[in-house]
Specification:
Layout (H helix, E strand, L loop, with lengths): L2 E5 L26 H10 L4 E5 L5 H13 L3 E6 L8 H8 L5 E6 L12 H12 L3 E4 L6 H10 L5 E3 L13 H11 L4 E5 L17 H11 L4 E3 L12 H11 L5 H15 L4
Parallel strand pairs: 1-2, 2-3, 3-4, 4-5, 5-6, 6-7, 7-8
Helix pairs in contact: 5-6, 6-7
Length: about 280
């Protein structure tokens, strides 16, 4: 099964979604729903997707769960819950009633690195694993040293790094990011999504070779058992069509065996998010 392990849906709200600015991001200042994505997945031979939260509210979690209940191709949801809440255990017990809710995410890239090291936050993340949920780590390279400490506090929690931790592809910076990524990959409970790359490159002038050293680093560090493809649709549209961003990964994995390619293109995501 081929799975897009990272994409979003939303009813566009100019206040809530203020991060989607006018001008260069105008192409995504509108609604994006399953009826928009379904034909794209079919055209590209993709069987299903994982819908990931874009807003930090439980309303967002329920919005995605409602869509997942209506569309079979949505294989799982990564929602949001207040991981520092006093009633977190009860909230997670409630969410276990929804089989398609696979995990949670907090937008750590918008927080200071030390945010994730707060005892209440790490206690909340540890509770996720106890309740059977995954956690998506969304950070910038500046957060990675804190991530290394964070991982040691949550050793049994299933983690996946979103978007390769957003390396500075446009500026061609790789050395420090690669060092931190290799250290993080030593934790066998951590996987990585090769997603969101085009938006970290020069939106108008990127070329496939720009991504090769970053993909090489991820594959070397995590191996083919802990890497999964994701589109970051519709955010990717500011820099590439679905087909163009997909071709970066498809062309890159041609050097791998069919079995290894199948793992990256869906088998690993199905195992991590328990969609099978």
């Amino acid at each position: 099964m081929t799975i897009d392990a990272h994409q979003h849906f939303w009813h566009f709200d100019p206040v809530r979604d203020a991060w989607i600015t006018e001008g260069s991001m105008s192409v995504i200042r509108r609604d994006f729903l399953p009826s928009d994505l379904s034909p794209i997945l079919q055209q590209n031979g993709i069987d299903g997707c994982i819908a990931v939260q874009a807003d930090q509210s439980e309303m967002e979690t329920h919005f995605l769960l409602e869509l997942a209940a209506q569309y079979d191709f949505i294989k799982g949801v990564v929602g949001w819950v207040d991981l520092k809440a006093d009633n977190l255990s009860e909230r997670l017990d409630y969410y276990t009633l929804f089989p398609k809710l696979k995990g949670f995410r907090h937008i750590l890239q918008g927080e200071k690195p030390e945010f994730m090291l707060q005892p209440r936050f790490t206690e909340g993340v540890r509770l996720l694993g106890q309740k059977g949920f995954t956690y998506d780590i969304l950070v910038f390279p500046k957060h990675l040293k804190a991530v290394k400490v964070f991982l040691k506090k949550c050793e049994n929690q299933p983690f996946v790094i979103d978007h390769l931790a957003k390396p500075y592809i446009k500026r061609g910076l790789i050395k420090e990011w690669a060092k931190d990524i290799r250290s993080i990959a030593k934790h066998e409970n951590v996987s990585c999504k090769i997603s969101g790359m085009v938006t970290e490159a020069d939106w108008q002038n990127w070329k496939e070779s720009d991504f090769t050293p970053y993909l090489d680093t991820i594959l070397e560090a995590f191996g083919t058992d802990r890497v999964m493809y994701g589109s970051d649709w519709p955010v990717c549209l500011v820099a590439a069509s679905y087909e163009k961003q997909f071709s970066i990964v498809k062309n890159y994995i041609k050097k791998l065996s069919d079995t290894e390619g199948d793992k990256i293109m869906g088998d690993n995501a199905a195992r991590f998010y328990k969609t099978a």
